[in-house]
Amino acid sequence: MALTISLVVLAGITVLILLRTGYLRLWPALAAVLFGFTLASTGIAPAVTSFISSIAGMLSSIG
After folding, report:
1. Which 3 state secondary structure label does DSSP give 23?
2. Domains in the chain: boundaries
3. Fewest Cβ atoms closer than 10 Å to its Cβ: which of 3, 20, 22, 25?
């Protein structure tokens, strides 16, 4: 049985866990989110998306 989970959901859960455990503070987390939104509106966004898709494809072929 294959389980599919969105990368956004997985990253959100990871950030929440890091915030709750104290490994990540609120202001650096907000800065990272703002950086992500800024990066998404630049010309490098398609390259980042392609890289993440290729990593996900590689990981899915392993399992």
Report:
1. coil
2. 8-62
3. 3
